[in-house]
Structures are given as structure tokens and as C-alpha cells.
Amino acid sequence: MNLDIPEPLAADAGSDAPRRARGRPRKTADERDDGNRRRELVTGAARLFRAQGFAGTSTRDIATAVGMRSGSPFYHFESKEALLAAVMLEGMQGALQRQNAALASLPQGAGVRERLRVLVRNHFDVLLGPDSDFIPVMLYEWRSLNAAQRSEVNRLKDQYEADWVPVLAALHAQGQLGSDPVLARLMIFGALNWSAQWYAPPSGRSAKARARASLDDLTTSAMQLFLKEPT
User: How high is the pLDDT of residue 167?
Assistant: First the structure.
């Protein structure tokens, strides 16, 4: 028969009995590493989803890419679909943080043209810089999300684009942006996002000379394309 011994009595049962620590049990090394392993899964999944497609990537592929056993991803995500949603959600959250930091770095009194330049430059960094796989995944795997997941990603995307709306409206009012601001925003994001398909950094070996430019070069070209020169 099992007897539940109250903790104070258990401690008094013998001077050699180990005392049980109060509070939550101490995490194992694996549990302490949960955040890092989760991040590795999201990053590795984004890379594979972009290269192979969502349907063409198995959970085993993702586990192998990050050095896990084949069933280990399910400790962090209930399904491959949940992992896809995390790629998009965490990618958009990171993009929002980077955009907020870029805008906060502007000098006080910066004009709307300079604000747009910062927004465009940061978006190129989100698209083409480190950890930039999530937007192509969003573009091509959108239908693989369920309605609730799409709604959450859309909420973050709307927050991200909200900073562009007043800038484009002000440039239109000043006559520097010829198009309707709403249509301009859609066209601008369409043009910028497509660069993920053709861009190669200057150090790359792509034969496409037109693609071999720095992100600053791309930003200058985009500004010249979208805006009229101030008079």
C-alpha cells in the first residue's frame, strides 16, 4: 500500500534523505534549450519550404536539417501546418520589429520622402537579407494555412503596411506620387516582393548582371521608379 508522506515528515525521516526543492522543478538541459531548438525548427523549415515547397517537405526532412530525431518537431509543433504558420507569423513579427527600429532611427523632422526610403530599404533587408525565407513562403504557401492562421498573419501584415499608408498619402498630396496611394501601395509591394525571385547579391555568381546590386542600389532604383523628382 502506498502512503503519501507529507513533505515536512519526509524531510525528518532521516538526516541523509535529500531535501526536495520547493517551487517548480529544475529544467533539464533539453528543456532549457527549448527556445533555441524551436527557433532552429522555424528557420530550417522556412529554408526548406522555400526550396522544396510545403507539400514537398516532410517533417523528417525538417528534423534532419536541424539535427533532430524524426519525431522531435512534434514536441514543439502539433503538425507540419502549425510549423508553416509559425514560419509566417514569426517572420512577420520580426519584420515589424525591424521596421519599427528603422523608423525610430530617423532623425527628428525627417521628411516623408526619406521615410519612404527607409521603409523601402528595410523591406529589401527583410526580403533579401539574413533569415529572409519567410516572405517567399508566405507568397507561395498562403493557401496551405487554415482560416484562423491566415487571419492572424493578415493582422500582422496590416500592421506592417500601416506605416506606409500615411507616407504614401503625404507624397501623393505633395505631387511626388502620381498614383492613388492605395493602388500605389499594392503595386509597390508587388514590385518589391518579386525581387526575391531574381535578386543575387554582388558577391554571387549569377549571370544576371542587372541583379548584381547592393540593397542600397535597389532602394535608389525603386525610389526613382516610384516617385517623381521633387521640384
Answer: 98
Domains and CATH numbers, the chain: 83-226 (1.10.357.10)
State the Cα–Cα distance between residues 216 and 204, nearest whole angstrom: 16
CA-to-CA dists, residue 63 to 3, 39, 162, 186, 202, angstroms: 44, 12, 36, 37, 32
For residue 169, count CB atoms less than 10 angstroms from its CB and return exposed for 0-12, middle for 13-18, buried for 19 or more: middle
What's the whole-model pTM score? 0.78
Give pLDDT tens digits for 175-204. Answer: 999 999 999 999 999 999 999 888 877 765
Number of H helices, E strands in the chain: 12, 0
Contact 199, 128 (CB under 8 A): yes
Residue 67: half-sphere exposure toward Cβ, Cα within 13 Å: 4
**CA–CA separation, 61 and 46 (whole Å):** 12
Work out the angle between the directed axes of helices 134-141 and 80-104 (0-180°, nearest 10).
130
Between vectors from CA 148 to CA 142 and to CA 153, what angle results, nearest 5°? 50
Cα dist. 95→91, 102, 149 in Å? Answer: 6, 10, 18
DSSP 208: -
* Cα gap 89→179, rounded to integer Å: 31
